[in-house]
């Protein structure tokens, strides 16, 4: 039987306490540097803050998972090792890793602490997952958001570790850990710096005809009519023109959120051990609302009751939602 | 530059869906005329394309080897479906030619038998390279987005372990892969009924911003840079920093001539400035870039410092 743990985002100490109080089984967070994939200004933890967070969470039975899920460039590996040392000293319950060198270091130095394989490692087959399990003792894999439920069920049968899947939040389109789009336009790397379409490079420019261009590092990622709401210029959610699509179209994906609340029972049945809510960059009130709603839904399902998912649907009211790859491979 | 006979010039695998005929003609010319030392073959991007050209592989390998080229077979970057897992395992079982692994599924299948590490394997640092070397890696191609100081540090570690170190010096940079086919999407199709529309774009499908600025190229599930990476002006420093292999990625331009330009610089026959101007001409409309190497936005072109 799946444990159906709820893994919740903690971008700040306040958000962490909020997620713990709202019923998270575990929270995930990172340090204020390139060692994690949400290295955004104003987010993340100092070592002292993490120490307090671990105390707070553990006192309430909640686990703390530390994301060290970026790829250190040669010459800077010590930053990641020190982050691992600090996390181990502060008593985190697991490290979420992607880089083989980082995984190897933690497996050798801290064999008593669980290793989770980040979605940034892009392990999407039983063989790839087994590679990390057998070599580094990985206990759980966070699956890429590209698999259907039947595929997840099949993988579950062929791997020796737990599965965690994303169920809610930003819907990443590219294979995580293999995307250099941001670095191509801005000079900051998602893999090496933990940066994706950074706010410091964003500009909204009003054009003469009243339309609005949302730009990243001077590139127009999308353009909106006077009546449209201008979206954030994330490269893979922009509109571009192609030879067959001169009018401009969402070449990769629409700005859309992932919401798998309707599929929760099936995912539990497929053997998914843990559900991850994306959004370390989100506000406390968002975290509170989402975590509470999913807590209630998961508890209902585990108790054999019909889950009230209306609250979960309402969380993204007015926004476009998708079940992405999980529902059908036509998504591909 | 002094004559350099140690540095190898390599030709990476064809990223695009070139027809079987186009591939045969291409490799025949490479075998006969291109001054490259090593050639990577195999379908790296889309497993649906492989049946079109894999029957020609043995003849292509034989032809290239007869011409004195070392041949390496590259595995898929993304492995998810049954046929992709099977294709990866099949290559991993081969005794010769050498293989280049681009997905952890390939590492799993290969075990400790010798293999090369491909650019999709994210070998960014000395610790990872040391781990991989301990598992049988003999050679590592670094990710295209790595800046010069990291390349130097990685190369130093790899060379100390006896590994070859490769850096892409020409052609579009791979920026992303996805489970979704963006070629099919542009034509209102899905990956399963794509009808191989990617064959229409032998150098990728151009995307332009809504204010008409070229930005990216689509190649099936892959997204590439609009500009061609050009590290010809940086070749001397790459070699000084320990890089042993320089990779040219096949584009829809005269790749024999491109290889000759690099060879001329390696052999000290043509000054870099003159050679680079020739490379720009050969590259046609494609802009040239070296931003990643210089630690800035990848699309940028940073001018070489004036000689002291």
UniProtKB/TrEMBL annotation, chain A:
Pathway: Cofactor biosynthesis; ubiquinone biosynthesis. Pfam families: Peptidase_U32 (PF01136). It comes from the Bacteria. GO terms for biological process: proteolysis; ubiquinone biosynthetic process. Keywords: Hydrolase, Protease, Ubiquinone biosynthesis. One of its GO terms (molecular function) is peptidase activity. Belongs to the peptidase U32 family. UbiU subfamily. Required for O(2)-independent ubiquinone (coenzyme Q) biosynthesis. Together with UbiV, is essential for the C6-hydroxylation reaction in the oxygen-independent ubiquinone biosynthesis pathway. Forms a heterodimer with UbiV. This is Ubiquinone biosynthesis protein UbiU. The lineage of its organism: Bacteria, Pseudomonadati, Pseudomonadota, Alphaproteobacteria, Rhodobacterales.
TrEMBL record, chain B:
The keyword Iron applies. Keywords: 4Fe-4S, Hydrolase, Iron, Iron-sulfur, Metal-binding, Protease, Ubiquinone biosynthesis. Pathway: Cofactor biosynthesis; ubiquinone biosynthesis. InterPro entries: Peptidase_U32, RNA/ubiquinone_mod_enzymes, UbiV. Its cofactor is [4Fe-4S] cluster. One of its GO terms (biological process) is ubiquinone biosynthetic process. [4Fe-4S] cluster binds at residues 46, 181, 194, 198. One of its GO terms (molecular function) is metal ion binding. It comes from the Bacteria. It holds the Pfam family Peptidase_U32. Belongs to the peptidase U32 family. UbiV subfamily. PANTHER family: PEPTIDASE U32 FAMILY, UBIQUINONE BIOSYNTHESIS PROTEIN UBIV. Forms a heterodimer with UbiU. Required for O(2)-independent ubiquinone (coenzyme Q) biosynthesis. Together with UbiU, is essential for the C6-hydroxylation reaction in the oxygen-independent ubiquinone biosynthesis pathway. This is Ubiquinone biosynthesis protein UbiV. The gene is ubiV.
